[in-house]
Input
Amino acid sequence: DAGVIQSPRHEVTEMGQEVTLRCKPISGHNSLFWYRQTMMRGLELLIYFNNNVPIDDSGMPEDRFSAKMPNASFSTLKIQPSEPRDSAVYFCASSLDRAFFGQGTRLTVV
Amino acid sequence: KNEVEQSPQNLTAQEGEFITINCSYSVGISALHWLQQHPGGGIVSLFMLSSGKKKHGRLIATINIQEKHSSLHITASHPRDSAVYICAVDYNTDKLIFGTGTRLQVFP
Output
C-alpha cells in the first residue's frame, strides 16, 4: 500500500486565492483526519470524518475553511480566501486502529 | 493547559546514550500513540499502546494506566534518531490530542 497520499506537497499562493489540498487515505481505513501544524501551536486537529461523514469540525478555524469527503478514497480541505496566517503544514491521516499520516502539504500564503 | 504534557521539550544526547521521553495525560484514554517527525516533516507512527510495553528494534514504549503516564525509550541512540517525538492520546473519541513534542538531537 502506498500509504496516505497528499497533494500537492508544496503550495505557494497569494493572499485571497482559493487553495485546495487533497488526500487519499489508505484503502480500508474508516476514519480520516485533517491536521494543521505551525511553530506556534504545534499539531492541531481541524476536522475528522468517520465513514465519510464529518464527525467533529470544531477545530476548523473559520468559515474560510471547509472539508469534504465525497467517497472513502478521497478528501479535500479548501481555504477560500486564503490569508498569510494560514501558512502551515497540513497533514492528512487515516486510521482503522492506528493512525497513518501523509507527508503533508506545506502551504505558504504570501 | 494542554491535556497532554511532554517532557523534556528539547533533548540533546551523544551517540550511544539511552534516551527517555515522557508523556503525561489527564484522564482515562483508550490508546496512546508515539509519533516521530523527521526534519523533512513526514510523520511516522511508532507505537500505539493501551497497556503494558511494546518494543521495536531500539525503541521501547511503556504505559502506566494508573499513573496516566507513558515513556518512550531509545537505546544506543544514533544521529539518525534525531527528530521530533510526539505523544498523542485518544480519549475514546476516535481523534488524537497531541503533546507539544520533544525535539531530540543526537550528536556523533
Q: What stands out?
A: Chain B touches chain A through 19 residues (CB under 8 Å). The mean pLDDT of chain B is 89. The longest strand of chain B covers residues 83-90.
